[in-house]
Amino acid sequence: MASGSSTQGESAGGSHLVQLIRSSVPPIHPGGRPIVLGALAGSLGLRFLLRTVGLRRFGSTVGRIGLTGTAASALFFRAPKRVTPLDTALVVAPADGLISLIEDAVPPPELGLGDQTLTRVSIFLSVFDVHVQRIPVSGVITKAAYRPGKFLSADLDKASEVNERNSLVISSTHGEQVIVTQIAGLIARRIVCDLGVGAPVLAGATYGLIRFGSRVDTYLPAGSTVDILLGQRTIGGETVLARLPPGSS
Is 153 a catalytic residue? Predict the structure, then answer.
């Protein structure tokens, strides 16, 4: 009887350990899985080939370097779970990173929204930040536009105007329009956006990623109250950028 109880206790303990590991290690975004799997397969394949031709020590070294690179890629494409504020009048950060600019700017012209300036909050993502993007407000996507461009360093002011980008216009549940723009950077060469026009969205939900260094701009509707400071670090889906205009519904 005691032996059976001990076995059950060990099983429960093992299951609990597995759950702890799963909760501590974030999943990989689907857009990054091909790269991680490709790096893993390439590392193991090259190691096997080198060892087969007699270069065992070199093969082992190459294998270790490759596995380290694979782990770094998995870390880059991590998509941790986040807890988003319930207040639907709040605009949450669409990305992890550093608030690099808070200024008035005209929205991307390809969206056809005119030349009225709006408050733009720019978040710069270094290679060490989580690179998935998250929806800033709940609502429905009413416009989407991709524009090819340059690959200047994403922390430069003019990156918003000249770099490759993908923009979404979200009609929030409060009736205000919030614009979020993914911008490629110096190293980033691939913008992934999983959503299109007509898609209902929830604040804090992941919708895409930018591979290897980038920037995300959020354009706030007129009358919004900015609740973020220049130089502050953000947690995507959790940090509050602003509050929508009072009286919007």
Answer: no
